[in-house]
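Table S4 entry, Dipeptidase E.
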Amino acid sequence: MKWCRQALLLSSSTLYGYPMLEFAKHEICSALTKHGIKEFIFVPYARKNYNWYTSQIKAIIEPWGFHMTGLHTYPNPVKAINASKAIFVGGGNSFLLLKTLYELNLVATIKKRVLQDGMLYIGSSAGTNVATIGIHTTNDMPIVYPPSLNGIGIVQFNINPHYIDPVESVQQQGDIRDINIRGYLKMEHSRRVIGMREGANLEVDGEKILITGINGAVLFEKNGDKIEYPVGSDVSFMEN
């Protein structure tokens, strides 16, 4: 099946030394402009205060020349998603976000709109996690319980946002992240995992997936290999 999917997946909304989302401004604006999108929906469900969260992102995005509305303001979220050309799913807690998406019957709706209709999906942190095959490799605490850990499935692998490299002189830092990811990869249901450093993005255009942004990423294979991929790398093979 040839997908017409378009997605931009960010490791985070923040990067040290940059205002919020500034490091990804070019990629976000380019993705929206490429599809002639001036208005889109923001999905704030990874946090509890929807109005506050939406206002924070709105204050950043709208000076860039786009109009944004919070999904929580629509009486029928499914209808709103079906009518939108693009959505931005914000970060926070992946368990809370996924649970809410399931409760509102939005998981299947978003999947269809992205994979079959070409709706642009922009995600950050938790919004990136739920775009994958599942949230098994999130760093978040399970503060609520979604009915499933299965994600939307826009990409057919797992992502670990905010990936931290192990530091030899500091015990129990990044090495714990590697151990946890390798523990997941021993499970029969596991998929490849890409660890996205802060400032790393994945640009998805149909069957093509590129690493963009400020920093690169690392790939964890099921056989134990850990491979470095710098900015500009084509990682479309991840879904093979």
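The two ends are 13 Å apart (CA to CA).
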